[in-house]
């Protein structure tokens, strides 16, 4: 056999003897209680921690549970989903879908000097301002994305305001009105053109008179009650198609400095000054350098201003002493559109009473507005209008900077 009688054989025999002697010694120590017998650990055979030697028998071990380390396979917390936003139909602002689907609410607002300051301007998506009677204008605020904490004083209906509210099939809030307007609301005020919300029927619960002002300049409401009334009359929420086009705000460094728009009715002169810092048109009215919304005490300052020229005439409704008007709201005419600090001359067009009023540039392309609130100033033919363009900042090139 291999290694028979060789030194290698003698070495192997000696090595086996050493192992045998070591095993015998280990067994003896275990039996004497000098060392503990190793406990087999599944998956970790041969890797047992040594315990310190003791001359006394080892006490029985007490197992103490300890918290297990977190499992690497535990699922991570699910991150909160990013809220989905969509463009609001009336302003182009990004809002949640439920807000974008709110049914528009149009409210007639007084503009006599004793009615100022009015409430609700800064929550409106669109504000129409046009002559009503005797050279005195009236507002119509349309609410959708934002709800006013207070809105008023609420006044009477006119036919051409119904035509503008009908562009959204809005709930139309008013206190009485001209015979022409009331006849239209009786015929087409259940959702055909608008949803009629007359204070004479719904006052007390959804509209009320405040004591701080005298009648008829004291009817008020708020967004919460008007939303309740909208559901009551059937003006339910749902998707709307935007009538206007909205783009982006002009970059801060490209916005013109200055810029002015002035228009005048017989009983009110309105001025807009463009503010490039906020990209808004700060509004003032006769007797007030800064028009303030009484609901939140903030300066009225829309993102877009549109001046429309329209034909008005006396309304032959059997009440000549009231000097009520009617307007040629279907058709087309001249318009000045101011947005992002720039004003262009264009055209307005409206095909029929329930179609949208749209605005086009000189080339016939739809005008693109900045996202946000729009004021529409409707002026009779021949009204004084003053527009002063702002100065566009000069862009210096790198070469000019070096020179």
Protein architecture, described:
With 403 residues, the chain is of the alpha+beta class. It folds into 2 domains: 86-233, YerB-like fold (3-Layer(bba) Sandwich); 245-388, YerB-like fold (3-Layer(bba) Sandwich), CATH 3.50.90. It is 16% helix and 27% strand. It has helices at 7-31, 97-100, 159-165, 179-188, 199-202, 223-233, 398-402, and strands spanning 86-87, 94-95, 105-109, 126-133, 136-143, 171-174, 195-198, 208-209, 219-220, 245-246, 260-264, 269-275, 280-284, 292-293, 298-299, 304-310, 312-314, 325-327, 331-339, 342-350, 358-360, 368-369, 374-380, 385-388. The strands form 7 sheets. A 10-stranded mixed β-sheet has the order 7-6-3-5-4-23-16-19-20-21. The protein has a 4-stranded antiparallel β-sheet with strand order 13-12-11-24, with no helix packed on it. It is globular, with a radius of gyration of 41 Å. It starts with 6 loop residues before the first helix and ends with a helix. Residues 1-5, 25-37, 39-66 and 396-403 have low confidence and may be disordered.
């Amino acid at each position: 056999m291999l290694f028979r009688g060789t030194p290698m054989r003698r070495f192997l025999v000696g090595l086996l003897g050493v192992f045998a002697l070591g095993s015998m010694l280990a067994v003896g120590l275990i039996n004497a209680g000098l060392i503990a017998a190793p406990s087999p650990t599944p998956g970790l055979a041969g890797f047992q921690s040594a315990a310190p030697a003791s001359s006394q028998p080892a006490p029985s071990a007490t197992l103490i549970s300890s918290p297990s380390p977190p499992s690497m396979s535990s699922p991570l917390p699910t991150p909160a989903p990013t809220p989905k936003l969509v463009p609001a139909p009336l302003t182009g602002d990004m809002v949640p879908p439920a807000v974008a689907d709110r049914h528009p609410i149009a409210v007639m607002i007084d503009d006599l000097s004793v009615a100022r300051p009015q409430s609700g301007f800064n929550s409106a998506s669109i504000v129409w301002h046009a002559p009503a009677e005797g050279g005195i204008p009236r507002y119509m605020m349309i609410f959708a994305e934002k709800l006013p904490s207070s809105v008023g004083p609420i006044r009477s209906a006119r036919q051409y305001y119904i035509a503008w509210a009908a562009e959204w099939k809005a709930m139309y809030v008013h206190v009485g009105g001209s015979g022409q307007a009331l006849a239209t609301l009786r015929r087409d005020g259940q959702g055909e053109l608008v949803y009629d919300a007359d204070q004479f029927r719904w006052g007390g619960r959804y509209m009320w008179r405040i004591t701080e002002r005298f009648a008829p300049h004291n009817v008020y409401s708020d967004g919460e009650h008007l939303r309740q009334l909208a559901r009551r009359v059937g003006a339910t929420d749902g998707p709307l198609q935007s009538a206007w086009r909205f783009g982006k705000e002009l970059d801060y460094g490209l916005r013109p400095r200055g810029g002015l728009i002035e228009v005048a009715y017989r009983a009110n002169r309105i001025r807009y000054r463009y503010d490039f810092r906020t990209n808004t048109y700060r509004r003032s009215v006769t007797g007030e350098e800064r028009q303030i919304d009484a609901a939140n005490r903030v300066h009225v300052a829309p993102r877009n201003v549109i001046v429309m020229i329209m034909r008005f005439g006396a309304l032959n409704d059997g009440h000549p002493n009231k000097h009520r008007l009617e307007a040629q709201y279907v058709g087309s005419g001249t318009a000045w559109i101011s947005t992002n600090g720039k004003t262009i001359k264009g055209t307005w067009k409206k095909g029929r009473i329930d179609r949208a009023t749209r605005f086009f540039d000189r080339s016939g392309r739809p005008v693109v507005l900045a996202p946000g609130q729009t004021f529409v100033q409707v002026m009779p033919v021949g009204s004084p209008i003053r527009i002063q363009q702002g100065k566009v900042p000069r862009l210096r090139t790198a070469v000019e900077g070096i020179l």
